[in-house]
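Lab notes, practical 5.
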Amino acid sequence: MTTTLDSPPATGAWREGDDPGGRLWTAPAPLRVESGAELPGVRLAYETWGELNADASNAVLVLHALTGDSHVTGPAGPGHPTAGWWDTLVGPGRALDPQRWFVVAPNVIGGCQGSTGPSSTAPDGRPWGSRFPIVTPRDAVAAETVLADELGVARWACVVGGSMGAMRALEWAATEPDRVARLCLLAGPAATSADQIGWASPQIAAIRADPGWHGGDYHHAAPGQGPHLGLGVARRIAHLSYRSGFELAERFGRDAQDGEDPRHGGRYAVESYLDHHAAKLVRRFDAGSYVRLTEMMNAHDVGRDRGGVAAGLARVTARTIVGGISSDRLYPPAQQEELADGIPGSGPARIIESPYGHDGFLIEADAVGALVGELLAE
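Output from the prediction step:
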């Protein structure tokens, strides 16, 4: 949908009838989620690169973070509002070279880029909206297991993910240990902490307080009438947690934005930076998905109903590398050390020195590629 800069669409979700881009879909299948809700006709959008070999031993599952999607690599274009979010990892000569590996990247259940989520059409012909239930990382694994079965992948050669993707990757290895040969966890925890739930709380509150939220049922609103203001505030809060204070100080200091004076109502440069990221997100994401996926991250606990975190981690049989970012203030390195210490097939956590904070798992391409390449070479 084309709108003016001042009037974002009610949702930035991919909708039926939009260009599919490189997406494929699983066949619709019912899914009973942990809350007890039954979702009929769930499907996942996904993309693949490379070919599955004869014995199906070269499949790698790549799992995205909160606002990611299936478009891991490739240019922006019809159906894909942004370029690949992990272009540096997948491609010729890279750690996940499609000449060797069959790379699979699904959009998570509850997402908004082709998979069943709040913006999807329910059986009654209306968007799910507020009726879409809370889903957990284990629900995501259940949906992705259907994808693996459809592709004929009995065991992933590797499952790799960062941030929310690391939560899902860990759940894959703990829930389906016989189906994960190798595991690469980047910038994620064994269980979401009170601090991390605390960071999430004002983000969800900002969206729900937006007059355009309408209790989660806003998907047919006119441009400019959706919850884009609340979603933009949520993105600003989140983005601060994704970068380090050191980096923000080095990049922006106390500088004013060009042509503006904060003493007369203008913005500081760092405020303009946050505004920019907020404006981009509201045009490619859905507020309902943002809420449900943030709740998914809050629900993450590999030890839940398994006797605690230590027992949950002990379920993992995959050869594992755990990576963290030295300046990550959202998921600090101590959490990666807990993962590495508790997973039997892991060595010590690999902490990447980086000034970029949590986003270092996306930015530090050479270091991350080296970790994935090392794991796949074993």
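Observations recorded by the TA: Confidence is low (pLDDT under 50) at residues 1-5. Residues 194-209 form the longest helix (16 residues).
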